[in-house]
C-alpha cells in the first residue's frame, strides 16, 4: 500500500540541547533504516519549512500507523496521511 505523508515538525525551542541532538540522531537512523528496507521510498524537504513530503510503501494501514508512531520526532509533529491507489491513466506501473 502506498501512502503520501506530510510531516510538519515543531521542536520546542526550550528543549534541552542534548535531548535535541539525541532525538534528531535517532530520527535520522530510523528514517534511514526504513529507506533501506524499501518502506520509505521518497523523502522530500519542503522549501522554507521544517517539513517533509514522503511516500511510503508498506503492507497495511496498521504498519503505516506503527511506523509513524515510532518516529522519534512524532511527539513534535503534525502528520497528514493520504492513502494512494494507482490512477487508471498513469503510464508507469509502480
From TrEMBL:
Span of domain Muconolactone isomerase: 1-89
Highest taxon listed in the record's lineage: Bacteria
Catalyses which reaction(s): (S)-muconolactone = (4,5-dihydro-5-oxofuran-2-yl)-acetate
Residues making up the signal peptide according to the UniProt record: none
Pfam families: MIase
InterPro entries membership: Dimeric_a/b-barrel (IPR011008), MLI_dom (IPR026029), Muconolactone_d_Isoase (IPR003464)
Protein name, UniProt field: Muconolactone Delta-isomerase
Known pathway: Aromatic compound metabolism; beta-ketoadipate pathway; 5-oxo-4,5-dihydro-2-furylacetate from catechol: step 3/3
NCBIfam families (UniProt xref): muco_delta
Keywords, sorted A to Z: Aromatic hydrocarbons catabolism, Isomerase
Keyword match Isomerase: yes
Gene Ontology MF terms in the entry: muconolactone delta-isomerase activity
Presence of the UniProt keyword Isomerase in the record: yes
Quaternary structure and partners: Homodecamer.
EC number: 5.3.3.4
Family stated for the protein in its record: Belongs to the muconolactone Delta-isomerase family.
Amino acid at each position: 500500500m502506498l501512502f503520501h505523508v506530510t510531516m510538519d515538525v515543531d521542536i520546542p525551542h526550550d528543549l534541552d540541547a542534548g535531548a535535541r541532538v539525541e532525538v534528531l540522531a535517532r530520527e535520522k537512523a530510523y528514517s534511514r533504516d526504513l529507506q533501506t528496507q524499501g518502506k520509505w521510498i521518497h523523502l522530500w524537504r519542503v522549501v522554507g519549512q521544517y517539513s517533509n513530503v514522503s511516500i511510503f510503501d508498506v503492507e497495511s494501514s496498521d504498519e503505516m500507523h506503527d511506523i509513524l508512531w515510532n518516529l522519534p520526532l512524532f511527539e513534535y509533529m503534525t502528520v497528514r496521511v493520504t492513502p494512494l491507489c494507482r490512477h487508471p491513466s498513469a503510464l508507469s506501473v509502480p
